[in-house]
Design goal:
Elements lengths: L1 E2 L4 E4 L5 E4 L5 E4 L7 E4 L3 E7 L4 E7 L2 E6 L2 E5 L5 E6 L7 E4 L4 E5 L2 E6 L3 E4 L10 E5 L2 E5 L3 E4 L14 E2 L7 E7 L2 E6 L3 E6 L7 E3 L8 E2 L5 E4 L2 E7 L6 E5 L4 E3 L3 H8 L3 H4 L3 E7 L2 E7 L4 E5 H5 L6 E4 L12 E6 L2 E5 L4 E6 L12 E4 L3 E2 L5 E10 L9 E7 L9 E4 L10 E3 L3 E3 L2 E8 L7 E10 L2
Antiparallel strand pairs: 1-43, 2-3, 4-5, 6-34, 7-8, 8-9, 9-10, 11-12, 12-13, 13-14, 15-16, 16-17, 17-18, 19-20, 20-21, 21-22, 23-25, 24-25, 25-26, 26-27, 28-29, 29-30, 30-31, 32-33, 33-34, 35-42, 36-42, 37-40, 37-41, 37-43, 38-39, 38-42
């Protein structure tokens, strides 16, 4: 009997049946002959350097990697040398963009430019005001303070003309961020998204496209990113709980599941504004990563297109499922994905390891519920079929079960192969009887790279 493993089922104290998504394992579509997909170990993180402080985001510009770490703007060379370019002050995650001539950095409520000729410069024009997001669009540096939309002068990016202020005209909700794609600008408000186009003129040079306003908004400056040729964002319409959406023409489609929504709903208003979205393209899969304070969620777009289930997974950097994921701010440069951590480490995503900055991390997946028309059953044998014997250590898999979907049994370990033991059969003979339904859980916390393509079970139905 083959048991589905890409997404499991569990229950909660309120009597709901919930999806249980894999932790530190990613669903991959591939016809292996064993199955039409499998759970893969996501890339680990190998440290390549140390920065001057906690990572606050990065960008690739002119084939070089730039990051803000602590209060410093740094450039990371292809030899992993960290060069400090200047001080941009304290703040949370930075907005970074670039023009033809300048790297644009929004740190705290300030705006900076950097280039090779002039180094780091702060825009100190008093007409700029506070900056919570910045975006280069059609020759202008566009910023917002949450109420107005401001552009710098076309011929002098250090200067701001107060007569050229704009505002969000379609809705009075506060501005939370800015975007630009397909020759259009986007003003993200809390409950709406306004589309603007450059029309020139002596005043504010952008005009609202009246029929294109999207009736969903975004919660914060970093809670949006370009994804699948449009924008993905965290937010919702007025009066609704936050979710993850994909922007369309005059509308948006929800891609988050109830479990992702529950994590978002549990955040404080302050933490909600700090949700951070970023895209990652690896091989033929495009993934959306949603960073929350205690963990990160990943959406697999290709798998979701061929599945009736919204396909998500969870990323953590510890031995529990509430350890913040440290591979944030991924920048593709020098042929690698470069990330930073909250303790100032610089790393690259590395498929040769499962560890994060040299530390083991947990992985886990649950199954759907076993059910035999209320007649119960007897589980004689379980076998995980996949790729054992890979990683940086001898590994074990821990098996447990639930008969109510909420409480779990004592774990039963078995070897998943010594290093190089690639034909190891990962099996259990539990001899467990269930009266109505039963769920299965498999977990590890070591350097195993084992992928799982199939779970086979020998189950005797009871009359």
């Amino acid at each position: 009997m083959r048991i589905p493993i890409v997404s499991g089922i569990k229950t909660n104290e309120h009597g709901d049946f919930l999806n249980s998504y894999p932790v530190n394992r990613e669903p991959v579509l591939k016809d292996t002959g064993v199955s039409d997909g499998y759970l893969a170990c996501p890339p680990g993180i190998t440290q390549v350097g140390t920065g001057p402080g906690p990572d606050r985001g990065g960008i690739a510009w002119n084939n070089r990697c730039f990051r803000v770490m602590g209060t410093k703007l740094v450039m990371i060379t292809s030899e992993w040398v960290v060069r400090v370019l200047g001080d941009v002050g304290a703040g949370d995650i930075c907005s970074l963009s670039y023009s033809f001539d300048n790297l644009i950095v929004n740190s705290g409520d300030r705006l900076y430019y950097w280039n090779d000729a002039y180094g780091l410069r702060q825009v100190d024009d008093p007409d700029l005001g506070a900056v919570i997001d910045a975006q280069w669009i059609d020759g202008y540096t566009m910023t917002t303070d949450g109420a107005y939309v401001v552009v710098t002068d076309l011929n002098d990016p250090m200067s701001v003309n107060p007569l050229r202020y704009g505002s969000s005209e379609e809705s009075p909700d506060p501005v939370t961020g800015l975007g630009h794609q397909h020759g259009e600008g986007y003003v993200f408000n809390r409950y709406t998204i306004q589309v603007i186009q450059n029309v020139g003129g002596l005043g504010f040079p952008f005009q609202t496209v009246k029929t294109a306003t999207i009736p969903y908004g975004c919660v914060g400056p970093q809670a949006k990113c370009k994804f699948l040729g449009t924008y993905a964002f965290c937010g919702g319409d007025e009066g609704s709980a936050p979710g993850i959406y994909l922007m369309g023409a005059g509308d948006a489609s929800k891609i988050s599941s109830g479990e992702v929504d529950a994590d978002l709903a549990a955040l404080s208003p302050g933490d909600l504004t700090k949700v951070w979205l970023e895209p990652r393209s690896v091989a033929d899969e495009q993934r959306l990563i949603v960073h929350l304070p205690t963990r990160s969620w990943g959406f697999a777009s290709q798998v979701a297109r061929r599945s009736s289930v919204k396909t998500w997974s969870v990323y953590v950097s510890g031995t529990t499922d509430a350890a913040p994921y440290q591979g944030r701010g991924a920048v593709y440069c020098y042929g690698k994905w470069i990330v930073g951590s909250q303790d100032g480490k610089i790393g690259v995503l590395d498929t040769a390891t499962a560890q994060h900055f040299g530390q083991d991390v947990m992985w886990r997946f649950d199954t759907t519920l076993l059910y035999n028309e209320s007649n119960g059953g007897l589980v004689h044998e379980l076998e995980l079929i996949g790729t054992p014997g890979r990683g940086n250590a001898d590994s074990r898999v821990l098996f447990s079960y639930t008969k109510d979907g909420e409480t779990w049994s004592v774990e039963r370990p078995t070897s998943s192969g010594k290093l190089g033991e690639r034909r190891k059969r990962v099996t259990w003979r539990p001899g467990i009887r269930f009266e109505q339904y039963m769920g299965l859980r498999f977990r590890g916390a070591d350097g195993s790279l084992m992928g799982v393509a199939r779970l086979e079970a020998q189950i005797e139905g009871l009359a």
